[in-house]
Amino acid sequence: xxxxxxxxxxxxxxxxxxxxxxxxxxxxxxxxxxxxxxxxxxxxxxxxxxxxxxxxxxxxxxxxxxxxxxxxxxxxxxxxxxxxxxxxxxxxxxxxxxxxxxxxxxxxxxxxxxxxxxxxxxxxxxxxxxxxxxxxxxxxxxxxxxxxxxxxxxxxxxxxxxxxxxxxxxxxxxxxxxxxxxxxxxxxxxxxxxxxxxxxxxxxxxxxxxxxxxxxxxxxxxxxxxxxxxxxxxxxxxxxxxxxxxxxxxxxxxxxxxxxxxxxxxxxxxxxxxxxxxxxxxxxxxxxxxxxxxxxxxxxxxxxxxxxxxxxxxxxxxxxxxxxxxxxxxxxxxxxxxxxxxxxxxxxxxxxxxxxxxxxxxxxxxxxxxxxxxxxxxxxxxxxxxxxxxxxxxxxxxxxxxxxxx
Length: 406
Known about the structure:
Layout: E1 2-3, E2 39-40, E3 49-52, E4 62-64, E5 67-71, E6 76-81, E7 87-92, E8 102-104, E9 107-112, E10 122-127, E11 133-138, E12 148-150, E13 153-157, E14 162-166, E15 173-178, E16 189-192, E17 195-200, E18 205-210, E19 216-221, E20 235-236, E21 240-248, E22 256-267, E23 273-285, E24 294-296, E25 299-302, E26 309-314, E27 320-325, E28 335-337, E29 340-344, E30 349-354, E31 360-365, E32 376-378, E33 381-385, E34 390-395, H1 396-400
Parallel strand pairs: 1-7, 2-32
Antiparallel strand pairs: 3-34, 4-5, 5-6, 6-7, 8-9, 9-10, 10-11, 12-13, 13-14, 14-15, 16-17, 17-18, 18-19, 20-21, 21-22, 22-23, 24-25, 25-26, 26-27, 28-29, 29-30, 30-31, 32-33, 33-34
């Protein structure tokens, strides 16, 4: 097993090499694309395998180069063969791997760190074929958030409130800026023209910045008692930025409290709040506070850690289109293809739901749970890692039931 270390690569590439467009095979942000619909550019048809790991995962599986890359909870990056699920190589980090790996021009980029910043915090690039380390950079705050490649620049927002820019080829730092707001389990989302959005807490804000100029374009502030602004993934539809947060019913410092889960849309040009709506009301457990909306066309889909409900909303107005009941909360991400939304729950059930009507098409119970892990799609199969240590490849038609409803 290889181990990540903090030896910075000596090779220096000129700045002009930065900006190479990602290939169709690359995975340059947490959920593959700004709509947060993690569908790989894969010609593979149906896959079916189950691979046990020595630890669970709370990440999205990244698919590319005929491989599946999975951050493990036990400080290990696992690399599996896409077709068979066989472990090809693994790399041991010096701290937790809580974000999502990136795949860029044959490099796997991973960030490490515990919530709060304890232990070794850093970001590294590995050779996707061998697992050999290519470069490493220490971070001033935790690497729990997921970075992104924006206009050829690697952008990271850490828990210390610093945004850093790196050359993804060499690891050389290009710039950094302290923006005060602290990212936790959020992820960078590109919004075009070398611009990106990020979210943080204390203060609770969503910001737009430019990857080349490091300037802040706009800020959107949230209520002073908002929770989990900095743990929301942000979706983008070309005009609006979508995310979520929790609003306690009263001021509290307790780990569990009554709250509303809120979904919002922000104008991507100026940061103006377009709409907000209540998704659910219930008791919050601080551990499960990530918001991860899914955008398909003009519809936003989201589950909730508060209630076993999954719902669809109009992206322009925030109006609820439909809501359906699951066997347990769907507290993390979902994925869609051909009009069907695939939703994992904390119980280990994966549902197939008609995206237009909310009708249940089928479901399958897996021998694992999906409390804080999210699926991806490769061809006609769903890939997902479980919190108890399995990674699964499942034909979509099995999740739909008879396979005739797509």
